Amino acid sequence: MSSFKDRIIRAAKLDVKLYEEVEADKGAMVQAMVIVVLASVAGGLGSLGKGGVSGLIWGTAIAMISWYVWAYVTYIVGTKILPEPQTRADYGELLRTIGFSSSPGLIRILGIIPGLAWIVFLIAGIWMLVAMVVAVRQALDYKSTFRAVGVCLIGWLIQALIIALFFSIFGGFEKPA
């Protein structure tokens, strides 16, 4: 078994074998969840400049909620609505692989550097999306990368709409006066 740090690096490098490895390793669920938490906290810390302490709290919470909603919607879309004939996956397999696809989100901590937050979050978001496509393709045994892209984008759009709805109802985080 690879070390945790090695797995994080391999996931960020989009190593297909790593995603197959964690899909099969039921013991990797804790590692996957730790990555999600760390990437969420990195997102929260990267939001400090925008929203202060409330940015940290909201940024972390929203990152975790977004990840979970995205993972759940992706599972439903990928296994129930758009499966390929060979698609066989349980929710745990997908959660493990998608959890590891959050590895690039660790760079969001660099958002604390004044003036860099938007570019860091953009790069992290794109990198995480690409990693998630790799994770979904492997976990759902897709032959088509195009289908994996579609499933991830549909999942992302739905979670973005849910988060936007949340913010429209409850408001965003504000920097204290």
Write out key terms for the chains shown.
mainly alpha; single chain; 177 residues
Summarize the helices and strands and which ones pair or pack.
Layout: H1 4-12, H2 16-24, H3 29-46, H4 48-81, H5 91-100, H6 117-139, H7 145-170
Helix pairs in contact: 2-5, 2-6, 3-4, 3-5, 4-5, 4-7, 5-6, 6-7
3D architecture notes:
It is a single chain. The model has no long low-confidence stretch (mean pLDDT 88). It contains seven helices and no strands. It has 177 residues and is mostly helical. It starts with a helix and ends in a 7-residue tail after the last helix. Helix 3 runs antiparallel to helix 4 (48-81) and helix 4 (48-81) packs across helix 7 (145-170). It has one domain. The longest helix is centred in the middle third of the chain and has 34 residues, at 48-81.
User: What is the count of distinct domains?
Assistant: 1
State mean pLDDT (0 to 100 scale). 88
The amount of helix comes to over 70%
For the largest beta-sheet, the strand count, sense and barrel status come to:
none
Structural class: mainly alpha
Q: Got a strand count? A: 0
Number of helices: 7
Alpha-carbon distance between the termini?
A: 50 Å
